[in-house]
Amino acid sequence: MRIAHYGRTKSAKNEGKVVPLDASATTDFGRDQRRCTFITPNSDPIYVAYHDEEWGVPVHDDNLLLELLVLTGAQVGSDWTSVLRKRQALREAFSGFDADVVAKFSERKITSVSSDAGIDISLVRGAVDNAKRILQIKREVGSFDKYLWGFVNHKPISTQYKSCHKIPVKNSKSESISKDMVRRGFRLVGPTVIHSFMQAAGLTNDHLITCPRHLQCVASLASSPPVAAPAAL
């Protein structure tokens, strides 16, 4: 099974934009330095830019976490480049992925979003249901961020893979998170989807150890503020 990855904007300053970059102009890669091997000379620049700037970088914004969850589900049966190209349209369709807004979508709104964004209506209904579950989690522990990061003790998992073929499509951690989310009523959150979501949200740093981004993602954590422990679930 092909490993799937999802892109997001680099910072709040650029929120809402996905800018294709020239592969030669992205993050400080010397001629003798190699990206993760799923990036090839034929990779779309939008995908290269995502790898160089965003994959493996921890996310703590609840709106962006919902966005990642929706987009990770959307790539099933598709590919990340196609998802990236639809990202802005989806962000507009889902009102910036504000759970308070999405949770109130009517059936008419659900049908409209499905038609306008060109996505399966079941995905829209799943997003609405998941937004409702997120609101419940916020009432319990304060934020979706605290809930998710509690599964990894508020510290990204940094793997040590030398080959993309060694990266699993799911693991025990994604199975645990999936099981709890299913128990809470989330939809489209199987272990494989959740593992891809963990990569997208930076809960796990799966850059190959031969890729400069592996250490850069680790180093970026030194400047990140500590995350307060959540209340008991």
TrEMBL record:
It comes from the Eukaryota. Keywords: Metal-binding, Zinc. Zn(2+) binds at residues 36, 51, 207, 211. The keyword NADP does not apply. GO terms for molecular function: DNA-3-methyladenine glycosylase activity; metal ion binding. One of its GO terms (biological process) is base-excision repair. PANTHER family: DNA GLYCOSYLASE SUPERFAMILY PROTEIN (PTHR31116:SF43), OS04G0501200 PROTEIN (PTHR31116). This is GMP synthase. It comes from Prunus yedoensis var. nudiflora. The lineage of its organism: Eukaryota, Viridiplantae, Streptophyta, Embryophyta, Tracheophyta.
